[in-house]
Amino acid sequence: MRTSHLVDQIMEHTFFRREIDNKSTVVDLGMNDGRFAREMHEKFGCKVIGVEANPHWACKLTNSDSIICHNLAISASTGNVKFLIADDDEASHIISNNAAAMDPAVTEVRSASLGTFLEENCVTEVDLLKVDIEGAELQMFEGPDFDVLTKAKQLSVEFHAFF
Predict the structure, then answer these.
(1) What is the DSSP secondary structure assignment for residue 63, as one 8-state letter?
(2) Are 123 and 96 in contact (CB under 8 A)?
(3) What is the pTM of this model?
(4) Do residues 109 and 57 lie in contact, with contact meaning Cβ atoms separated by under 8 Å?
């Protein structure tokens, strides 16, 4: 982990530390095993609200007053999406290919736009929005909720090339 007086880094996600304290709300899109959320809370005492589309990971993440995980995929719209659970947990992702939808490793997951997710969780301001949603980043940014990003003071995005 690399740190300085201005920036911090947790799990390869870099952000300005001056924006984060014990009153902050961090939104973690793509919680995976929850390490980022736990480290953010331990280091800053902040609240972390997030999503993990992979039901195997989501059910292992225990909710508390400080860290909340929803089994949900962030998408351009609200509904359901087909989600491929890959052997490499970090490569699981939303699929749009109907042929791949017959794969036994594909499951259906509830989806919501970023705006809907924030509204459902009464989040009006985000101190850090971490986006690591395995190929759905562009869909989220190109979706109708682009203006919702103005609620975030800062973003940390990991873009994926396999989409």
Answers:
(1) P
(2) no
(3) 0.89
(4) no
C-beta of residue 40 within 8 angstroms of C-beta of residue 66: no
CB 101 within 8 A of CB 143: no
- CA–CA distance from 133 to each of 35, 44, 73, 103 (Å)? 15, 23, 8, 21
Give the end-to-end CA distance of the chain in Å, rounded to a whole number: 28
Q: Cα separation of 105 and 124, whole Å?
A: 36
On whether residue 1 sits in a domain, the answer given is no
pLDDT in tens, 38-74: 999 999 999 999 999 999 999 998 889 999 999 999 9
pLDDT digits (tens, 9 = 90+) for 110-129: 999 999 999 999 999 999 99
**Triad 111, 55, 93: Cα angle to 5°:** 60
pLDDT above 80 (res 99): no
Contact present, 20 and 154 (Cβ < 8 Å):
no
State the residue range of the domain holding 121.
7-157
Amino acid symbol at 26: V
In a domain, 41, yes or no: yes
Please give the residue that has the higher pLDDT: either 37 or 143.
Answer: 37
> Residue 65's domain is classified under what CATH number?
3.40.50.150
Q: How many domains does the chain have?
A: 1
